[in-house]
């Protein structure tokens, strides 16, 4: 295989982490306080492991050295029965730390299970799980703990661990649920759904990693709280006081009036150990966000060394025969008849308990191979809803209530996309049709490297593809959109807006789709970067032969980029025409108003007219033509019925313009209307 023989070694070299990235986790502890916290915490963990083995005495052994202060024989002094306090502290470290960590593990697991499940699934599941968490939140934890401990008098440390976990998970679940509700609406989660990722994969690869900082902080906080709770339970005598822990040491010191008797050495070491461990855990918590958040990883230890290593990394050599992208297609012309996607009478509604709102209504058009069709219109006209309907990424309460999406495969077979099952749709997306979302910073997963996100698409749809081939393909795709291969390990925030948008295009091209839906891909980019993105799209379209549905507010951009332009208003297409014909002679009054809103860079100066009024409320559309209240050419019959799309006479050899206006209903009105607009 050419790919395996030529590209494998170089791809592995290019993807191999540098020394700086391999030890990037050390940057989490570059602050002195965090490093101290790590040392203190590690010390007590080691003490919990080896403490019972290095204790100089049996902690339960009595002697005649009653209430002796610290000395060479007894470092922490003795109790009133001559027991060695130092040995008891060493023995007690194990139970205190183990109970704290075990309770935190169980509590955080329950928090993740309940919080993320409720937030991601929503609906009745969310209501029930949220109600359960609220019940535990409103019940005072201390009385609940005491009651549960009372019913488990002989359970020892295991019972205490379970009680602390059961009473301590609800707050973390609420926090994780609220974060999940925010994340599940992010574009990178929608992108994962579009690539065909299963729900479980989205949760574990997109939702869960983005909450690691919260989970880690919750875990450390729960460990601290559990250690304090165990000490408090033991101090009150509710735990098994025959098991040595720091809490039971304090319990026996209190019952023996050590404080009144001046035996400070009996209670100070255990209390100090609890305080030091809690402080250490809190200090470690300060470094968690820097380790999890890739925005903060560039600063600190090893940054310049890692950047120098990245710059020196060898470039991957390309060789003939390694491409897996299909060859260039013939340039698109208006005479092309190779229909790739046909949309017929598409209708999308947003339903509620009382009524439904039609966001896309009776939309029909044909997309031919290699064609760029631009969708224009004001905000709320239904452009993005149309894009999500074509890719079947709409979510409840949105639903497609009518129409067909007929896609013609390479072998000539025609399939209705609306009739595909979930598994068939998963294979269809990205293989045949992909989408490039607007706002690339939100569409890209912020904690995953660019190369990993492209690789995700390949793994989801090419599970048998060797890892080395995937790495080579990732580098090839980045090179295809003009991103250097040394950015394969960059995070989204390390790229400029234009590079992020190019990365999104690379993800869309990963599986060589025949159709790419681009939902305002140049939003929030300056005009120079917009020009670069448009040129790159045109270059790739001509090179690879795919078709594009390009959605934007920018008519000037559409006229330059598109072969055909469809204008939407109030959920309907009101005009569809060849781009140059649309620019020279817009047929619909709304199209004229849109063009009149853009200034010209050359020619005579003219006054910008715009469109008076505001877009209509889709919940209460006027009768007849929805544009009638704003139309300068309105007639009485405009308010009676919605006119159909009517062909307008154009030059021979050009695609006929279609407009939805009553003035085209008579054969002699076409010239008059064109002159009027």
From TrEMBL:
It comes from the Bacteria. It is found in: Cell membrane; Membrane. Residues 343-595 form the ABC transporter domain. It is a multi-pass membrane protein. Residues 93-285 form the ABC transmembrane type-1 domain. Keywords: ATP-binding, Membrane, Nucleotide-binding, Transmembrane, Transmembrane helix, Transport. SMART domains: AAA (SM00382). Coiled coil: none annotated. The chain crosses the membrane at residues 35-55, 95-121, 128-152, 158-176, 212-238, 264-288. Belongs to the binding-protein-dependent transport system permease family. This is Dipeptide/oligopeptide/nickel ABC transporter permease/ATP-binding protein. It comes from Microbacterium aoyamense.
């Amino acid at each position: 295989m050419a790919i395996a023989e030529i590209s494998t070694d170089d791809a592995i070299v290019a993807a191999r982490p540098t020394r700086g990235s391999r030890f990037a986790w050390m940057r989490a502890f570059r602050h002195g306080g965090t490093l101290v916290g790590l040392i203190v915490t590690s010390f007590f963990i080691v003490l919990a492991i080896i403490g019972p083995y290095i204790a100089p005495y049996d902690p339960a052994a009595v002697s005649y050295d009653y209430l002796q202060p610290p000395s060479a024989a007894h470092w922490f002094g003795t109790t009133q029965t001559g027991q060695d306090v130092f040995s008891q502290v060493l023995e007690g470290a194990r139970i205190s730390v183990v109970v704290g960590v075990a309770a935190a593990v169980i509590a955080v697991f329950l928090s993740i299970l309940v919080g993320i499940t409720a937030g991601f699934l929503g609906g009745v599941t969310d209501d029930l799980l949220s109600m359960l968490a609220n019940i535990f939140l409103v019940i005072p934890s201390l009385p609940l703990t005491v009651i549960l401990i009372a019913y488990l008098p002989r359970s020892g440390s295991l019972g205490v661990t379970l009680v602390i976990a059961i009473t301590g998970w609800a707050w973390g679940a609420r926090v994780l649920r609220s974060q999940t509700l925010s994340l599940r609406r992010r574009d990178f989660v929608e992108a994962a759904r579009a690539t065909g990722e299963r729900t479980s994969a989205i949760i574990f690869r997109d939702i869960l990693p983005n909450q690691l900082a919260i989970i880690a902080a919750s875990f450390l906080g729960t460990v601290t709280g559990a250690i304090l709770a165990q000490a408090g339970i033991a101090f009150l005598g509710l735990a098994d006081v025959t098991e040595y822990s720091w809490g039971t040491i304090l319990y026996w010191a209190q019952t023996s009036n050590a404080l009144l008797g001046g035996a400070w050495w009996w209670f100070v070491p255990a209390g100090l150990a609890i305080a030091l461990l809690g402080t250490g855990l809190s200090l470690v918590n300060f470094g968690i966000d820097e380790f999890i958040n890739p925005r903060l990883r560039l600063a600190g230890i090893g940054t310049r060394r890692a950047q120098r290593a990245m710059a020196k990394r060898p470039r991957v050599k390309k060789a003939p025969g390694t491409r897996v992208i299909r060859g260039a297609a013939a340039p698109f012309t208006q005479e092309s008849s190779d229909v790739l996607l046909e949309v017929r009478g598409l209708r999308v509604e947003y339903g509620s308990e009382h009524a439904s709102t039609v966001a896309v209504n009776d939309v029909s058009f044909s997309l031919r191979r290699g064609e760029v069709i631009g969708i224009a219109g004001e905000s709320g006209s239904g452009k993005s809803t149309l894009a999500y309907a074509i890719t079947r990424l709409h979510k409840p309460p949105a639903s497609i209530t009518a129409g067909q999406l007929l896609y013609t495969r390479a072998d000539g077979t025609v399939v209705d996309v609306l009739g595909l099952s979930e598994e068939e749709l998963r294979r269809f997306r990205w293989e045949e049709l992909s989408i490039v979302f607007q706002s690339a910073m939100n569409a890209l997963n912020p904690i995953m490297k660019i190369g990993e996100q492209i690789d995700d698409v390949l793994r989801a749809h090419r599970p048998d593809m060797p890892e080395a081939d995937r790495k080579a393909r990732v580098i090839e795709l980045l090179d295809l959109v003009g991103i250097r291969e040394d950015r394969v390990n960059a995070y989204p925030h390390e790229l400029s807006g234009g590079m992020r948008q190019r990365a999104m295009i690379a993800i869309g091209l990963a599986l060589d789709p025949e159709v790419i839906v681009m939902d305002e891909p140049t939003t929030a980019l300056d005009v120079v970067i917009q020009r670069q993105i448009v040129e790159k799209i045109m270059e790739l379209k001509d090179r690879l032969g795919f078709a594009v549905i390009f959605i934007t507010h920018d008519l000037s951009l559409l006229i330059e980029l598109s072969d055909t332009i469809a204008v939407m208003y109030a959920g309907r297409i009101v005009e569809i025409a060849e781009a140059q014909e649309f620019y020279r002679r817009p047929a619909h009054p709304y199209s004229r108003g849109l063009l009149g809103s853009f200034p010209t860079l050359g020619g005579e100066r003219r006054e910008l007219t715009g469109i008076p009024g505001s877009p209509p409320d889709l919940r209460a559309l006027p009768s007849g033509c929805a544009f009638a209240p704003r139309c300068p050419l309105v007639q009485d019959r405009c308010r009676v019925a919605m006119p159909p799309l009517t062909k307008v006479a154009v030059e021979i050899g050009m695609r006929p313009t279609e407009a939805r206006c009553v003035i085209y209903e008579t054969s002699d009105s076409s010239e008059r209307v064109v002159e009027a607009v």
